[in-house]
Design brief:
With 304 residues, this protein is of the alpha/beta class. The protein has two domains: 129 residues, Response regulator (Rossmann fold, 3-Layer(aba) Sandwich); 153 residues, Alpha-Beta Plaits. It is built from ten helices and ten strands. The strands form two sheets. A five-stranded parallel beta sheet has the order 2-1-3-4-5, with helices on both faces. Helix 8 packs across helix 9. Bound molecules: magnesium ion.
């Protein structure tokens, strides 16, 4: 994975005085796309809709002030990571400290100097880009490029909570490459790695909804989390994935039954009326996967 090239960043400028917005807009509009808001509530709404890359936030505003806005942004996991720079005429050290305690990354005092604003905004966007890159890296499996175990664990945990709250369904598929040890013994580990990469990509591409997640669970085992999907639907998706892998016809000379790579799958579902923990859901899918192996592999087992 490479650090993506700098795209044109979007900035949100929040100030109750239009002329202050104009000053910042003039300083920054040649490099960035600028959104603006003239009060706290409007600012929160724009953030929700447009998720800007950085926010320049006036502290003193009628109604909801900059500090309250910042506090709300930092409490929400979806907006927490957006860097906030406070812009204010209050240049006392104490104010600066309060702002930074609230989670702002920097502080600019009015009257702002365009050269300084440009430089500071540039620095904070660069830092944000590296933070995002590291965050993505820590959630990606190094070999296959799909989500890793940590990403899966976090995703399942948060989506499970959401699913229980919203009384929706959630399904989990655990997939395991059949006779993978024999594959490695026969073809070598480089080919084994290549096999895992192809299977991972096939599973990930086989999930068509953006809300679903395919992850490497460990070794030759993969997990797919399907949001809002009942058991019957999950079985259909699992069957589609199983067929996709089989239809690759990847040579497997040591597979007793087939001459190509296949996967076995276990499916488990958290239905709206149930209270199964994420761990219990994984265990259930794992039991079903075990049964699929026992029953001859290249098959799916779900609820009987
Ligand atoms: Mg103001």
């Amino acid at each position: 994975m490479t650090i993506p090239a700098e795209h044109q960043a979007t900035l949100l400028v929040v100030d109750d005085m239009i002329e202050n917005i104009e000053i910042l807009n003039n300083a920054l509009c040649d490099r960035y796309r600028i959104l603006f808001a003239t009060n706290g509530l409007e600012a929160l709404a724009v953030v929700q809709e447009q998720s800007p890359d950085l926010i320049l936030l006036d502290v003193i505003m009628p109604g909801m002030d900059g500090r309250q806005v910042c506090k709300q942004l930092k409490q929400n996991p979806l907006t927490r990571e957006i860097p906030v720079i406070f812009v204010t005429a209050k240049d006392q050290e104490e104010d600066e400290e309060i702002g930074l305690h609230l989670g702002a990354v920097d502080y600019l005092t009015k009257p702002v100097r365009p050269g300084i604003v440009k430089l500071r905004v540039g620095i904070h966007l660069e830092l944000k880009r590296y933070r995002d890159y590291l965050a993505r890296l820590s959630m990606t499996d190094g070999l296959t490029g799909i989500a890793n175990r940590r990403c899966f664990d976090e995703f399942l945990e948060t989506q499970w909570l959401h699913t229980v709250r919203s009384e929706a369904a959630l399904s989990l598929i655990l997939a395991d490459v059949d006779h993978f040890k024999a594959y490695n013994d026969h073809y070598g580990h480089v080919a084994g790695d290549r096999c895992l990469q192809v299977v991972a990509t096939t599973l990930a591409n086989g999930l068509t909804r953006r809300t679903d997640l395919a992850a490497r669970y460990g070794g030759e085992e993969f997990a797919c989390v399907l949001l809002g999907t009942h058991h019957a639907g999950a079985l259909v998706i699992a069957e589609r994935l199983r067929q996709r892998v089989a239809s690759l016809r990847l040579d497997h000379a040591r597979s007793p039954k087939h001459s190509f790579v296949t996967v076995s799958m276990g499916v488990a579902t958290l239905e709206p009326d149930q209270h199964v923990s994420p761990q219990a859901l994984i265990e259930k899918a794992d039991q079903h996967l075990y049964q699929a192996k026992q029953m001859g592999r290249n098959r799916i087992v779900g609820n009987q």
